[in-house]
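Let's practice the habit of predicting before peeking. Look at the sequence and jot down your guess about where helices and strands might fall. Then scroll down.
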Amino acid sequence: MNSQNRTIPGAQAVARAARLLRLVTAAGDAGAHLQELAREADLSRSTAHRLLSALRAEGLVDRDEDSARWMPGPELFLMGSVAAARYDVTALARDIVRSLAVKTEESAFLSVRRADETVCLLREEGAFPIRSFVLSEGVRFPLGVASAGLAILAFLPDHDVDAYLDRHPELGERWGRGHDAVPLRRRLAETKERGYAVNPGLIVNGSWGMGAAVFDRSGRPEWALSLTGVEFRFGPDRLAELGRTLMSHAHQLSSRIAGARR
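Done guessing? Here is the structure:
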């Protein structure tokens, strides 16, 4: 929890409830058991159950009585429908993501930044028959881990990057030593210089990813387009070609978003 939350009365309870809500949403239709949610949220079972019950009373989550799994509630649909008019860019991005998948023959994605994470919003399959399944719609990763989050983090102001790394010293322990601050900062610098991010199988061995930031009207990286595929498809010669294609599609989407919000 950041220092601002510690100074706001009730912020800890709100932050914990929001964390549980994100975990339930990420589980989707399959739902998640109380024990899983408590562990992922770093809460006791009793605290997690109390907060989930309060969210259920408001219609934000639901509980399947047969499986005892918690899943998104009906109020989320209503809230999401209202918020979509302001925040959802999937309608603007869908044909661009599809074009990216067609031109590269790899799986293509649109992800959005949500606080310290990215959330995948769209996935389009390419024609190449061997695919990577690291990323799919609704999956979240911390910034700097998957290629989309690496691309977004690289183009944030330096002070935001420093603050993010201070908040998350656990990245290396959870995601591998390649995500410690020193190697991560090196990849961020490479991403900024190159214009796009490359993840050389750091999440799943043999599964590569590339990402390019998509910017809002003020020039902040709020979304990213990315590609994933098997390692042999990302050789040095093809990598540069894929990078150019990825960045051209990201620039097209940034321009479209800016034009749509005038």
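How did you do? The radius of gyration is 19 Å.
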